């Protein structure tokens, strides 16, 4: 009887240890920053800041500018894909698009930063995933940002309104299913063309996965700004849950 109790106790201990190990399994992130034409100077500072943050969190992080990394075998290693200012059209082959889509279908997370909307214009599915496509932008300038949703982890720490300097994109083909987090006050700067309805950060569940996008992140300085990084980190944590 005593031997049986010891065996049961050992089995339960093994289950607890195994469960703890599974819980402690690190999150794996893939940061993709392929550029076809224009290349943002903020890509390198962005990589550095994300590396420091991932190390603090105990996450594994890889970087890629190679569309060939979008295969079923490779993508299944990652909990989230972070598109850090990529640019270009017709970047992915049909098989790479299929692998990307399967990844999202199976619950994958997607984070788009700034120029992620200036990418893959030919692919309607991608446009719906990221939430919109870029059209144009005025010169870099300060603008007032309104917090539309202050309950999300990417915005809960922000004032109801705040001033910020960046390159403000105008968008087309906005996915009506996105949940807006931040919006620009077009009366506070010059060059907004969205008739006062100008979202600049949003999130949504899409096609089996989760997506977060922020239009901030053009300038190098964004990635050394604690406010922007906390906003971005909150978006990444959202798609990882």
Automatic annotation (TrEMBL):
Transmembrane segments: none annotated. It comes from the Bacteria. Gene3D superfamilies: 3.40.50.880. Residues 1-21 form the signal peptide. The keyword Signal applies. Residues 29-239 form the ThuA-like domain. Keywords: Signal. Pfam families: ThuA (PF06283). This is Crp/FNR family transcriptional regulator. It comes from Pseudopedobacter saltans (strain ATCC 51119 / DSM 12145 / JCM 21818 / CCUG 39354 / LMG 10337 / NBRC 100064 / NCIMB 13643).
């Amino acid at each position: 009887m005593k031997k049986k109790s010891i065996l049961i106790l050992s089995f339960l201990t093994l289950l607890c240890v195994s469960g703890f190990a599974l819980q402690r399994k690190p999150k794996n992130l893939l940061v993709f920053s392929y550029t076809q034409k224009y290349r943002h100077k903020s890509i390198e500072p962005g990589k550095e800041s994300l590396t420091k943050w991932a190390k603090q969190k105990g996450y594994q992080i890889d970087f890629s500018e190679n569309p060939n990394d979008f295969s079923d075998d490779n993508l299944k290693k990652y909990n989230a894909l972070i598109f850090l200012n990529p640019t270009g059209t017709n970047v992915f082959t049909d098989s790479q698009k299929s692998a990307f889509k399967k990844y999202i279908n199976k619950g994958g997370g997607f984070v788009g930063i700034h120029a992620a909307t200036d990418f893959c214009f030919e692919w309607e599915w991608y446009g719906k995933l990221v939430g919109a496509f870029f059209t144009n932008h005025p010169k870099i300038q300060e603008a007032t940002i309104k917090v539309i949703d202050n309950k999300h982890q990417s915005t809960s720490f922000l004032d109801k309104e705040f001033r910020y300097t960046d390159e403000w994109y105008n968008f087309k083909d906005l996915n009506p299913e996105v949940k807006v987090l931040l919006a620009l006050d077009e009366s506070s700067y010059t060059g907004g063309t969205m008739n006062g309805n100008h979202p600049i950060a949003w999130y949504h569940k899409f096609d089996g996965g989760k997506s977060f996008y922020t239009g901030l992140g053009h300038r190098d300085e964004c990635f050394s700004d604690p406010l922007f990084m906390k906003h971005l980190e909150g978006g990444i944590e959202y798609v990882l849950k």
